[in-house]
């Protein structure tokens, strides 16, 4: 069970990295460090990912309760 959780967390991490990297980092590097705009973009991208993930988890949990399916849905990696 712990191994599955670790796998799920790792998968979520890599999805966030991939998605936010493609969105926020230009293909041609200018500097070796992130500039302010890239940093802000990454921060917002990660925050938005978790916010959407929580909303989806809540909606699925609510739908499950309406249909009588038990169990809880966590926001992380759901």
From TrEMBL:
Recorded GO CC terms: mitochondrial inner membrane
InterPro entries cross-referenced by the UniProt entry: Tim10-like, Tim10-like_dom_sf
Keyword Membrane annotated: yes
Location of this chain's protein in the cell: Mitochondrion inner membrane
Pfam families, per database record: zf-Tim10_DDP
Signal sequence segment: none
Keywords noted in UniProt: Chaperone, Disulfide bond, Membrane, Metal-binding, Mitochondrion, Mitochondrion inner membrane, Protein transport, Translocation, Transport, Zinc
Gene Ontology BP terms: protein insertion into mitochondrial inner membrane; protein transport
Protein topology in the membrane: Peripheral membrane protein
Domain Tim10-like: 1-62
GO molecular function terms noted in the UniProt entry: metal ion binding
PANTHER family recorded: MITOCHONDRIAL IMPORT INNER MEMBRANE TRANSLOCASE SUBUNIT TIM10 (PTHR11038:SF16)
Family of the protein in this entry: Belongs to the small Tim family.
Subunit relationships: Heterohexamer.
Main function: Mitochondrial intermembrane chaperone that participates in the import and insertion of some multi-pass transmembrane proteins into the mitochondrial inner membrane. Also required for the transfer of beta-barrel precursors from the TOM complex to the sorting and assembly machinery (SAM complex) of the outer membrane. Acts as a chaperone-like protein that protects the hydrophobic precursors from aggregation and guide them through the mitochondrial intermembrane space.
Domain notes: The twin CX3C motif contains 4 conserved Cys residues that form 2 disulfide bonds in the mitochondrial intermembrane space.
Record's protein name: Mitochondrial import inner membrane translocase subunit
Organism: Cetraspora pellucida
